[in-house]
Amino acid sequence: xxxxxxxxxxxxxxxxxxxxxxxxxxxxxxxxxxxxxxxxxxxxxxxxxxxxxxxxxxxxxxxxxxxxxxxxxxxxxxxxxxxxxxxxxxxxxxxxxxxxxxxxxxxxxxxxxxxxxxxxxxxxxxxxxxxxxxxxxxxxxxxxxxxxxxxxxxxxxxxxxxxxxxxxxxxxxxxxxxxxxxxxxxxxxxxxxxxxxxxxxxxxxxxxxxxxxxxxxxxxxxxxxxxxxxxxxxxxxxxxxxxxxxxxxxxxxxxxxxxxxxxxxxxxxxxxxxxxxxxxxxxxxxxxxxxxxxxx
Length: 296
Description:
The chain is α/β, with parallel strands linked by helices. It is 25% helix and 25% strand. The protein has helices at 2-22, 60-69, 89-100, 112-117, 125-137, 181-186, 205-211, and strands at residues 26-35, 42-46, 73-76, 106-108, 141-142, 146-152, 155-162, 194-199, 215-218, 227-228, 232-233, 248-252, 255-259, 276-285. The strands form three sheets. Strands 1-14-2-3-4-5 form a six-stranded mixed sheet, covered by helices on one side. Helix 3 runs parallel beside helix 5. The longest helix has 21 residues, at 2-22.
């Protein structure tokens, strides 16, 4: 019996040590796609679900990875913070301020943690308002149900940020979003320009594609926390088992959806076969086989 207890104790200790090390690491995941709407390569970095995590001193390894990627834009679809931990907002703010010093446009839309912090009865409301003001002052373009235009690589890009209703994040039930919700919140998608959408929750990938987003970036699911090789993610933050849109690159009706595994965790600090990641996406022009870009 003592031998069995000893073996179990060693396994538990090794598992805890492994988890401790895993939560200090991230990887850079790179994707490449093509679009007839771009004239030359556009590169973007996707940062999601930081939850005030730090890697190394002042997130320098993470900042250096962004710098090496040399993006034309940085896209953040929410959850830089943890709602109830207002004392850690400065960690997220310091990181974003450092991103802004890279002289790369930074676009942000709320995740569920930001949306909850903005509720009138939130204990974190005052701290969040100050935090948001600092984000705006350092140059972050906050797009909550708003859109803007950006020129990148000789291509005009329309970037839209969707703030979803908090009812979409209720635990223990399948996420639901009205079919006309994107049109009501954002109006029509651009057909002429490359249309990028920031949308925190990936469960509505089909609706994002149907709305007209050429490329959507999401987070929220944290890659499912625990992954089983060959099967994928085990459970979503809403406790939905084996979520269809967990992490990675998806194509829906010819349109791309990129879902980050996130950079931080909250509540359940677990990652099994599911390392945190910084995502780099390159969009290249389609060609006619003779080296010339196709016209839209």
